[in-house]
Amino acid sequence: MIIAVDGPTASGKGTIARALAAHYRLPHLDTGLLYRAVGRQVFLDGGNPDDPVDALAATSFPEALLADPHLRSEETGGLASRVSIHPTVRQALFERQRTFATQPGGAVLDGRDIGTVIAPEAQVKLFVTASVEARAERRWREMHERGITASLEAIAEDLRRRDARDTERKDAPLRAAPDAWVLDTSTLSRDQAVAAAIGAVEEAL
Ligand code: C5P
């Protein structure tokens, strides 16, 4: 069984994907982390994330980079969304995601294009979304807990910028697959969102 969980930043897709993986005892891949590693590697190389040659070179990042706490930062998220525009970067990361998705026994993957490009044959496709306001508030709380101060408006602005970049790019833009189950988490608690996602999986099986 392949479970594809797509959606914008801070929609709750990562939390839902992890919970589904634990519930169904399936391995989980956060594909955003791969793009974040490329973004971080471009930065470490002193390259330009908007240059397709620099970005492609960064796809051969060392495995250990995936454990780097810097990958979680807002800065790296911004770099990830810039390198992920280049089709050559997406191609370079395709095989790794495809192999993970098709491993015997199944898998859960979360990202932007799992249900549309990486595993269009997935038995379960969830498109997790939420209003910019709800997402900004969650991000603000997360950052606050880590001792980082930022204005809610600045966070919302950054989310809008990243949404625009992710939905307007030509190659594998962020969009729900036609057969995806759309889950709006704006007014749901974590537990409610996870319960709704499990319900959707049960219905799809
Ligand atoms: O999900 P996360 O915020 O970690 O992703 C960082 C960036 O990586 C996204 O803004 C998006 O541009 C890119 N990404 C992508 N395709 C994926 C996962 C992430 O283009 N499957």
TrEMBL record:
Binding site for ATP: G7, P8, T9, A10, S11, G12, K13, G14, T15
Keyword vocabulary terms for this entry: ATP-binding, Cytoplasm, Kinase, Nucleotide-binding, Transferase
Example of a GO cellular component annotation carried by this entry: cytoplasm
Annotated Cytidylate kinase domain residues: 3-201
Reactions the enzyme catalyzes: dCMP + ATP = dCDP + ADP; CMP + ATP = CDP + ADP
Annotated Pfam families: Cytidylate_kin (PF02224)
Localization of this protein: Cytoplasm
Family to which the UniProt record says this protein belongs: Belongs to the cytidylate kinase family. Type 1 subfamily.
Protein name: Cytidylate kinase
Species in which this protein is naturally found: Pelagerythrobacter aerophilus
